[in-house]
């Protein structure tokens, strides 16, 4: 019997996300629209070791705020579609900016696989990346890749299934934002935790952070007039 | 626990945090995230002690130069348009030749009405669309190459300062460039603009950028009425379109969409050699919207116009007695101040509302003449002067691009408010502009 895993591909524009999507799904993909908005939705699937893996290509975004329909679509899919695994494609030659999205995925408490793409470019610039160290600090599987040459492709396939099966041994890191902020995040978490509906629908800490960011979309979602 | 209590708790935290950090908490949280990343990178990333000056950086010093950036950009755009017209011309000729073959075959088909629908309606109408498919696809090839190699983002960066003058952001620039091909992908490209005010403004001004469908009108009329200065006149029309777009942006930003234009950092992707597959996919994704439109909306519009031109049954196609002629006659007086208050002109503009590609075709059908002699016919039959032709071209440039573009605004904004605003504003503006040109021009010329 084949088991099904749903994965979402997240990543910045220009991180090679489309290449990874094409490598994974080949010709088994189709394009539609996300409901309610005219943002293109690409879906595909592949079979791997007894798994049918459904792949959703999220719009390329730098962040998961509510500033553009693309960001809202990506975020809502993670929250509501509850993918088993989120593969975050990261440009290794531009880590600082790309990890900004990664940090927000950690906030969302997703099961993360970090595809560290464009390792060749990073190398040619003289960057040395401690891949194992990165995995430890993020608490997530990291796969170094060169997607245009399919390098790292097999390892990515393995990690996706491993994380999807819940075999990931690393514990997801909770980014620490300094004592002042943490204090307020924690306090809000406690207040939100008493609301049964909200605490079932959203990761508590994430919701607390979003409230502090005065995120208009989230306020609308929890039924507060802005 | 009610939601209000959550919000109260949040408000307490917010005011406390504002006291500590003196900045809004969204910024504070963003800084903390970068702080986390900074700490992480110290541990796991070793950069070379002296960062190599990358080739990318060197190229940027030239392309993004404070003074030379804009002339270089204009030069590249000029090259792009040269490339499009030269590369597309043979294909366009080929398609036109094929279509006239088809039209001849259709002319022999019986019954006659069926032949007329095929020949005058479908082949004539869809054909006029097909004949500039090469132009549009070559434009999209050029834009995709520029985008994939990383230049388009630089062009947006170079134009950012100029765009801020009219209250827009550099990101609005790419949709506007696409607008030279077809307004629909231009409107759709506005999705990448984060700030909703910027997005709507860009969407509403992009129809003023002269799309490929308007070019045949310009080429025909400028060629016929300004034979010595045709190129200059067409260029002037493009500039008028750009000017109106920017002026409109300024007006909208001062009235409808007040507030700061966004100051997001623009991303400069590394220069890359565009791949054949990547460029083809990009080109196709943009071009297909145009083809879909040609296949559906424009096809429907052409059949509708043919129908209006043939009703009541038995009238000569697109004659004064046809429904098209009658509607044209009915509306014509409105356009007397513009200089072209005659039913054939108005009928062609009405069909142009469905698709601007059909304006020339409808005029040709009314007089049953080839496009080559249409200019002369307009002079002898309607008494057109170069001034009237110019007013007509300006009107064609500015009024509602086509139903498909309006439909795209509707689907992108999920509202009927903006498409209606676009129709009323652009058509009103077109009328005022054409009237001003005609009336002032008459005074100056003294006729």
Give an overview of the whole structure:
The complex is a heterodimer of chains A (226) and B (447). By secondary structure, chain A is of the alpha/beta class. Chain A has helices spanning 17-25, 69-81, 95-107, 119-124, 131-138, 153-164, 179-193, 196-201, 204-212, 216-221, and strands spanning 3-11, 29-33, 40-48, 51-57, 85-91, 112-117, 128-129, 141-144. Chain B is built from 20 helices and 1 strand. Chain B has helices at residues 3-21, 25-44, 55-63, 69-107, 112-130, 133-149, 151-165, 173-178, 183-189, 196-205, 215-225, 230-254, 276-310, 323-331, 343-354, 358-367, 374-382, 386-398, 403-413, 417-445; one strand at 45-46. The chains are: A alpha/beta (226), B mainly alpha (447). Chains A and B meet through helix 2, helix 3, strand 7, helix 5 and helix 7 of A and helix 1, helix 2 and strand 1 of B. Strand 7 of chain A pairs antiparallel with strand 1 (45-46) of chain B.
Helices and strands, with pairings:
The complex is a heterodimer of chains A (226) and B (447).
Chain A: E1 3-11, H1 17-25, E2 29-33, E3 40-48, E4 51-57, H2 69-81, E5 85-91, H3 95-107, E6 112-117, H4 119-124, E7 128-129, H5 131-138, E8 141-144, H6 153-164, H7 179-193, H8 196-201, H9 204-212, H10 216-221
Parallel strand pairs in A: 1-4, 1-5, 5-6, 6-8
Antiparallel strand pairs in A: 2-3, 3-4
Helix pairs in contact in A: 7-9
Chain B: H1 3-21, H2 25-44, E1 45-46, H3 55-63, H4 69-107, H5 112-130, H6 133-149, H7 151-165, H8 173-178, H9 183-189, H10 196-205, H11 215-225, H12 230-254, H13 276-310, H14 323-331, H15 343-354, H16 358-367, H17 374-382, H18 386-398, H19 403-413, H20 417-445
**Helix content bin of chain A:** 40-55%
SSE class of chain B: mainly alpha
**How many β-strand stretches of chain A?**
8
**Given the C-alpha coordinates, what overall shape of chain A results?**
globular
Per the principal axes of the C-alpha atoms, what is the gross shape of chain B?
Answer: elongated
Q: Write the element-wise H/E pattern of chain B from the N-terminal end onward.
A: HHEHHHHHHHHHHHHHHHHHH
- The CATH topology label of the largest domain in chain A is Rossmann fold
Which percent band covers the strand fraction of chain A?
15-25%
Rg over C-alpha atoms of chain B, rounded to the nearest angstrom:
26 Å
Mean pLDDT of chain B: 82
Strand content of chain B: under 5%
Q: What pattern of helices and strands is seen along the backbone of chain A?
A: EHEEEHEHEHEHEHHHHH
């Amino acid at each position: 019997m084949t088991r099904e895993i749903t994965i979402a591909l997240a990543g910045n524009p220009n991180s090679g996300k489309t290449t990874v999507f094409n490598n994974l799904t080949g010709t088994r993909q189709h394009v539609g629209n996300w409901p309610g908005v005219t943002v293109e939705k690409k879906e595909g699937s592949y079979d791997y070791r007894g798994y049918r893996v459904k792949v959703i290509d999220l719009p390329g975004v730098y962040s998961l705020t509510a500033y553009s329909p693309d960001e809202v679509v990506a975020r809502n899919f993670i929250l509501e579609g509850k993918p088993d695994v989120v593969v975050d494609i990261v440009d290794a030659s531009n880590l600082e900016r790309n990890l900004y999205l990664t940090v927000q995925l950690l906030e969302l408490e997703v099961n993360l696989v970090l595809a560290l793409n464009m390792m060749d470019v990073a190398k040619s610039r003289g960057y040395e990346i401690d891949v194992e160290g990165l995995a430890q600090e993020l608490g997530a599987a990291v796969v170094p890749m060169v997607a245009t040459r399919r390098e790292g492709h097999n390892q990515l396939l393995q990690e996706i299934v491993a994380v999807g099966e819940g075999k990931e041994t690393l514990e997801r890191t909770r980014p620490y934002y300094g004592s002042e902020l943490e204090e307020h995040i924690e306090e809000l978490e406690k207040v939100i935790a008493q609301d049964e509906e909200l605490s079932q629908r959203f990761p508590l800490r994430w919701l607390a952070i979003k409230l502090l960011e005065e995120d208009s979309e989230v306020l609308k979602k929890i039924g507060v007039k802005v | 626990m009610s939601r209000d209590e959550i919000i109260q708790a949040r408000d307490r935290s917010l005011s406390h945090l504002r006291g500590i950090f003196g900045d809004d908490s969204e910024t504070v949280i963003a800084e903390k995230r970068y702080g986390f990343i900074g700490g992480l990178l110290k541990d796991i990333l070793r950069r070379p002690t002296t960062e190599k000056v990358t080739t990318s950086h060197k190229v940027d010093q030239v392309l993004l130069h404070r003074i030379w950036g804009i002339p270089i950009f204009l030069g590249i755009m000029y090259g792009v348009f040269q490339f499009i017209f030269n590369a597309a011309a043979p294909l366009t000729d080929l398609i036109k030749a094929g279509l006239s073959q088809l039209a001849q075959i259709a002319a022999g088909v019986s019954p006659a009405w069926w032949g007329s629908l095929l020949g005058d309606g479908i082949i004539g109408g869809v054909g006029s669309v097909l004949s500039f498919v090469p132009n549009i696809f070559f434009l999209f090839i050029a834009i995709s190459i520029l985008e994939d190699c990383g230049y388009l983002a630089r062009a947006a960066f170079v134009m950012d300062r100029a765009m801020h003058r009219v209250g827009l952001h550099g990101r609005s620039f790419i949709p506007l460039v696409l607008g030279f091909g077809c307004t629909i992908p231009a409107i759709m490209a506005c999705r990448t603009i984060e700030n909703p005010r910027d997005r709507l403004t860009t969407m509403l001004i992009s129809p003023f950028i002269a799309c490929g469908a308007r070019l045949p009108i310009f080429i025909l009329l400028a060629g016929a009425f300004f034979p010595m200065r045709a190129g200059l006149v067409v260029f002037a029309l493009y500039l008028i379109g750009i000017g109106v777009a920017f002026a409109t942006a300024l007006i909208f930003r001062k009235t409808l969409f007040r507030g700061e234009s966004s100051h997001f950092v623009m991303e400069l992707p590394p220069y890359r050699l565009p791949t054949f597959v990547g460029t083809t996919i990009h080109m196709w994704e943009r071009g297909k919207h145009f083809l879909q439109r040609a296949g559906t909306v424009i096809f429907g519009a052409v059949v509708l116009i043919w129908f209006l031109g043939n009703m009541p049954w038995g009238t000569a196609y697109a004659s004064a007695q046809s429904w098209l002629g009658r509607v044209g006659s009915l509306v014509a007086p409105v356009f007397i101040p513009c200089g072209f208050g005659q039913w054939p002109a108005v009928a062609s503009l009405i069909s142009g509302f469905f698709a601007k590609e059909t304006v020339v075709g409808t005029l040709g059908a009314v007089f049953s003449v080839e496009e080559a002699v249409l200019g002369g016919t307009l002079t002898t039959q309607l008494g057109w002067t170069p001034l009237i032709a110019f007013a007509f071209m300006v009107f064609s440039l500015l009024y509602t691009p086509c139903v498909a573009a309006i439909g795209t605004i509707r689907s992108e904004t999920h509202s009927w408010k903006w498409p209606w605003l676009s129709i009323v504003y652009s058509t009103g503006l077109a009328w005022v502009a054409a009237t001003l040109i005609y009336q002032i021009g008459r005074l100056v010329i003294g006729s």
